[in-house]
Amino acid sequence: MTDKLKFAVIGVGIMGSSHVRDISKSDDIALAAICDIDPQRAQAAAAAHGVPAYTDYREMMEKEKLDGVMIATPHYFHTPIAIEAMLHGINVLSEKPEAVTVKDAHSMNDAYEEAKQKFPNLVFAIMFQNRTFGVYAKLKEMIEAGELGNLVRTTWLVTDWFRSQAYYDNGGWRATWRGEGGGVLLNQCPHNLDLYQWLVGLPKKVTGFAAIGKYHNIEVEDEVTAFFQHENGMVGHFVTSTAESPGTNRLEIVGEKGKVVVEGGKILFTRNEMPMLEFLRTTPELFAKVPNETVEIPYEKGGGAHIIVTEKFAAAIRNPASALVAEGPEGIRGLSLSNAIMLSSWTGQTVELPLDEDLYEKKLQALIATSRFQKTVTGSGAVADVTSSFQK
């Protein structure tokens, strides 16, 4: 029997604790250590699983023989922890986002490429479990097969990320420039922004409007509207909020051959009898519309669990030819959308990709330096069950 891979979880708050539970049930992965800057939290989690507790990830990496680390800390720590692990030849699975800024993500990706010179089979993955949902896998298959033809519009109205004030108050780092680096775009929407670029690619230009603390007592964004211009002519729209209840999660992708709507777990495809741009150029009728039919597209249900990403990560460690759900360096793509939306909002100008990462860094550091926001922490910071917050 093959020995289990030895993993450590770094950061055992809400998400880290969930990963600990997943690993404890795994047939292929063993929990080898726990690390958290809160000594009591680290010791409690470690004692429950009979493993060593650490408050310093560097010490843990020096003392423990690890096959992999799962990083579930506040966002700013993803970069230094991942780089340190890579230098030790330890495989890395990071929670989203890859980093707070594109500049930090570049540092991680560069460190990965450098570490692979010494450790050729080093694996770097990111926790984009939403790619495994059957609905999005089917949608990607349809787009790549050309069923929609050339794309002209993608609109995602995703306002079902409702969060109460109590959520933001449960922990001093949340929803601050210094502690988290952003709001809904950096915390809730990395999954949606990753899926957007995974499905239809990155735009060339981004125009963003971000409301800061519009509905919550926070200093970061809680409502965002963005407009994307793609090089192929497609336009995109992205609208999100943590204040709407009931919220909406509706994705529309329109191509010459028809329109796909994803909502409520269904894929509805309105298929044109002929490409709409050909029809509009050739029909002699003044008010004609392209004949079409709407069908519901079947797909394999399920997916979306974090453990799927973790198991793929473990499989890739054992066999370099095994595919990951999402390679770590891909995290910079959705992050570039997030950073670009905020930079556009801050400057009042349309931003082109690739992003001016130095300008973004300068703007963010200025917000941190001039912040006078007094964070109210009324919660205990206790670990809560986050399952009900996941999108399906």
Task: Explain what you see.
The chain is an alpha/beta fold and 392 residues long. The protein has 2 domains: 5-128 and 305-327, NAD(P)-binding Rossmann-like Domain (Rossmann fold, 3-Layer(aba) Sandwich), CATH 3.40.50.720; 130-302 and 334-380, Dihydrodipicolinate Reductase, domain 2 (2-Layer Sandwich), CATH 3.30.360.10. Helix content is 35%, strand content 22%. It is built from 13 helices and 15 strands. The strands form 2 sheets. The chain has a 9-stranded mixed β-sheet. Helix 6 packs parallel to helix 9 (190-200), helix 9 (190-200) crosses helix 12 (331-347) and helix 12 (331-347) crosses helix 13 (357-370). It is globular, with a radius of gyration of 22 Å.
